[in-house]
Write a structure and sequence with these properties.
The chain has a single domain, classed as TIM Barrel. It is built from 10 helices and 9 strands. It has helices spanning 21-29, 74-88, 108-119, 138-148, 164-169, 176-189, 208-221, 238-244, 253-266, 294-308, and strands at residues 33-38, 93-98, 127-131, 153-160, 194-201, 225-230, 233-234, 272-275, 285-287. α3 links the parallel β2 (93-98) and β3 (127-131). The two termini are 27 Å apart.
Length: 316
């Protein structure tokens, strides 16, 4: 028997023992979709002084999208990347993803204008907006509700950790209570909107117990999607300075794989897992360098779940 045929996890038609984003998109839209990252030129309230300065300690000035500068018109960014994708793959459906910085940190009027613009792009079947829990006022949730009546919408909220001590250390500049308040208002005010929550493993001061607690707390909220990240140390960040001074030690490869598998076992099986690791840019990544081999890390998570005879939600 193959790993596929003996896979007990019901939200999978491959060897994956967790609810992958690829599976979710194929079931939702009937085929593979491509995500196109866009940069609308925003900043963040923990960068510009509204809530704090300097941004999160692991952020090198903001999460600019690869290949985007925040100045190029969104349609031009979208069309350029779509053209490059079509040269490599046969894809008919696309997801414009407002990724860089905080994409609701603007006026209500501009937020509505941008969402309606990206929703109209050729081939767009869903739009995705990355933002913060302290930047979604009720008026903007109403806009999300209205747009979601016309096209599927996902809103990504960066939690990283449910521990307020960790949030203060990483300079997130909002509390877990603020996060859960936003989550509830978004769920109630825009029920068709899919909510994705980001968590990061390996944050300073956190051990396995706190990482598991964050996962449990997120599971209680029951978002539609979860992204699990590994903390990368990027050049010219406060985190890189901590690392250089010996004040921070990143997770090793085996630790990370085991923690992710433990988290998957505790996550409700219907929650989509869009990401289980990531890869930093080689030229800017300080550590952990093992993370550059993203595919092998993912493969070893798959292998560990198989060797455990495990799958997402088995310990729920």
């Amino acid at each position: 028997m193959s790993q596929v045929s003996e896979n007990p996890f019901k939200y999978s038609d491959t060897n994956k023992r967790y609810h992958t984003y690829d599976y979710y998109l194929r079931k939702s839209f009937g085929e593979k979709c491509a995500k196109i990252t866009l940069d609308a030129g925003f900043t963040c309230p923990n960068i510009d002084g509204s809530r704090g300065v300097g941004g999160c300690i692991y952020c090198s000035g903001g999460s600019r999208s690869r290949g985007c500068d925040g100045l190029t018109p969104l349609k031009e960014q979208y069309d350029s990347q779509r053209e490059q994708i079509l040269k490599k793959w046969t894809v008919n459906k696309f997801i414009p993803y407002l990724q860089a910085y905080t994409n609701s940190y603007t006026s209500t009027e501009n937020f509505e204008k941008i969402l309606n613009e990206v929703a109209s792009f050729d081939g767009a079947v869903m739009i995705d907006i990355a933002t913060r829990a302290d930047c979604l006022e009720d008026e903007k949730i109403k806009i999300l509700k209205d747009v979601s009546e016309k096209i599927p919408v996902t809103v990504e909220l960066g939690l990283q950790s449910s521990d307020d001590k960790t949030a203060k250390l990483i300079n997130r500049c909002h509390t877990y209570e603020e996060f859960t308040d936003c989550f509830s208002r978004l769920r109630l005010g825009a029920p068709k909107v899919k909510i994705a929550v980001h968590i990061i493993n390996g944050l300073p001061g956190e051990g396995r117990e706190q990482m598991i607690k964050t996962l449990r707390d997120v599971d209680k909220l029951h978002p539609d999607i979860v992204k699990i990240h590994l903390l990368h140390i990027i050049k010219d960040t406060p985190l890189a300075k901590m690392y250089g001074q010996g004040k921070y030690t990143p997770l090793d490869r085996e630790e990370y794989i085991n923690i992710v598998c433990d988290q998957l076992e505790l996550l409700s099986p219907d929650i989509v897992v869009e990401r289980i690791t990531g890869d930093g840019l080689r030229e800017s990544l300080v550590a952990p360098l093992w993370s550059l081999k993203k595919t092998t890390v993912i493969n070893d998570i798959d292998k560990e779940m198989y060797l455990r005879g495990s799958y997402q939600g088995i310990k729920k």
